[in-house]
Amino acid sequence: MEKAAKRNEDTVQSVFAKRTHFLYRVFLRSGWGWTCIFVGSFVFLLSFSVRRSLTLSLRHLSRLAVAGGLWLGFRKLLCLLENATGSCYEPLSSSLELASGTNGDQPLLLLHEGETKEACVRSGMLWRGYEVSEDALLLCLCCLLLAEETAVFGPYLSLGGPSGAPLRILFLFCVLLLSLWVFLLLCLLAYFPRFPTQLLGGALGCLSWRVLYQGWYRLGPSWYCPGRPGVGLLSTQSKQDEISETLCESNDTEIN
């Protein structure tokens, strides 16, 4: 028992066990914004350096717009779900608890009907209801999105695509951001465990990635689908290489 108590005390004293930590305030609360900045810059620079086509670059950037719209839709839907299934309670004072004969482990709660979760928490009262972790949803979605969008950089380099210092630096920043999101996800699971809600949030994030990148985007680029990462870039580069090789061979034949 003493070892368990000491372990819990050490956990509480950890800097990552505080919601006011720098990483939570600066990165987690605006996680989608950081993801859009770095991934959007990388996707635009990669696509524009190959084709010099603004239309193609915007088509690849539209994947971020679709994921952003899905994230905002989930936030609205989860907010409606929480307000519909939850209730707001006001803890009664200790004097009323003693008068009623209740112990301190189970304080009396006064139900406030018609309150939203935001107004309830802002008033310092307790909100109890069905919740889905938005943090777990966002982190899982951002991790999978980063992995998908940056995975084309290896084949792109192997095909001899132009890769200056800005593109390589942006790729490095994307990798560092992916590592940060994984680290914050592990911190949430370790220091703020709410496994049923976090499990549902992570499942929604993985489901969103599955539907978009493994389902819809595989249909190919069209007016209703932006296509998968690298479509129109890697194929174009390989065709250019084949054409250049054919021209070199024809020139050698003519010379001989």
Automatic annotation (TrEMBL):
The chain crosses the membrane at residues 31-50, 136-157, 169-192. One of its GO terms (biological process) is lipid droplet organization. It is found in: Endoplasmic reticulum membrane. It comes from the Eukaryota. One of its GO terms (molecular function) is coenzyme A diphosphatase activity. InterPro entries: FIT, FITM1/2. Keywords: Endoplasmic reticulum, Membrane, Transmembrane, Transmembrane helix. It is a multi-pass membrane protein. GO terms for cellular component: endoplasmic reticulum membrane. It holds the Pfam family FIT. HAMAP family: FITM2 (MF_03230). This is Fat storage-inducing transmembrane protein 1. It comes from Cirrhinus molitorella.
